[in-house]
UniProtKB/TrEMBL annotation:
UniProt protein name: Pyridoxal phosphate homeostasis protein
InterPro entries on file: Ala_racemase_N (IPR001608), PLP-binding_barrel (IPR029066), PyrdxlP_homeostasis (IPR011078)
Co-factor(s): pyridoxal 5'-phosphate
Matches recorded under HAMAP family: PLP_homeostasis (MF_02087)
Role this protein plays: Pyridoxal 5'-phosphate (PLP)-binding protein, which may be involved in intracellular homeostatic regulation of pyridoxal 5'-phosphate (PLP), the active form of vitamin B6.
GO molecular function, one term: pyridoxal phosphate binding
Family to which the UniProt record says this protein belongs: Belongs to the pyridoxal phosphate-binding protein YggS/PROSC family.
Length: 243
């Protein structure tokens, strides 16, 4: 009974999030279709993902390789999976092999990770893998991502040295309470401006993945094209109790 109730809450919450995305986009004179919502289901059972899928959603994200590898085969094959956050380079091959319908990696934070993904994708018969370069916009040592001053070089490496990867933009992860400051978002937008100039690409070719449950509306108003929503859709995460 509790599971069924939670399922109903998840699909209702998704509709509410999509409505808030629409409103935030309108405030910024943007189209809601310019913003992708990724439902991040970390620690949540597949039954809840299926409920959100049945409500029409297709973009789902996970933060751990083992979890996405376990969930992907249990979901329909038209799900477009996002791996979010720091990826250990030695897990790139397992990620690609275990999730044939992997849509995007958010994000690559070193040439080493890019090279391992390149090698893994090259060994498979699939389309180039979309990747976002992860930028540490807050300066916190605990956060993964390149410094803003290094974003152009890593983007150039992906674009020019990794033919089986598709450089698709930038991402940043907010604070521990799932919020970011306008300065974080401005920094990421500034990185995009630099990359577009140096690599001679249009802003439309460089996505901004920024904004989570606590700050996605502000992120959209400041130009985000990809928001990652977890607890607002699925409820608070359930972590095992450490003994």
């Amino acid at each position: 009974m509790a599971a069924r109730a939670a399922e109903g809450l998840a699909s209702t919450a998704l509709r509410n999030v999509l409505q808030r995305v629409q409103q935030a986009a309108e405030r910024a004179s943007r189209q809601a279709s310019q913003v992708r919502v990724v439902a991040v289901s970390k620690t949540k059972p597949v039954v809840l993902l299926q409920e959100v899928y049945d409500a029409g959603h297709r973009h789902f994200g996970e933060n751990y390789v083992q979890e996405i590898i376990e969930k992907a085969p249990q979901m329909p094959k038209d799900v477009q999976w996002h791996f979010i956050g720091h990826l250990q380079s030695n897990k790139a091959k397992a990620l690609l092999a275990g999730v044939p319908n992997l849509y995007m990696v958010e994000g690559v934070d070193s040439p080493k990770v890019a090279n391992h993904l390149e090698k893994a994708v090259a060994g498979l018969e699939r389309n180039p893998l979309k990747v976002l370069v992860q930028v540490n916009t807050s300066g916190e040592e605990s956060k993964s991502g390149v410094e803003p001053s290094e974003c152009v070089e890593l983007a150039r490496h992906v674009k020019l040295e990794c033919p089986h990867l598709e450089f698709s933009g930038l991402m940043t992860i907010g604070n521990a309470d799932y919020t970011s400051t306008p300065e974080n978002f401005k920094t990421l937008a500034s990185c995009r401006d630099q990359i577009c100039k140096e690599l001679q690409i249009s802003p439309e070719q460089c996505e901004l993945s920024m904004g989570m449950s606590g700050d996605f509306e502000l992120a959209i108003e400041m130009g985000s094209t990809n928001v990652r929503i977890g607890s607002t859709i699925f409820g608070a995460r359930s972590y095992p109790v450490k003994t």
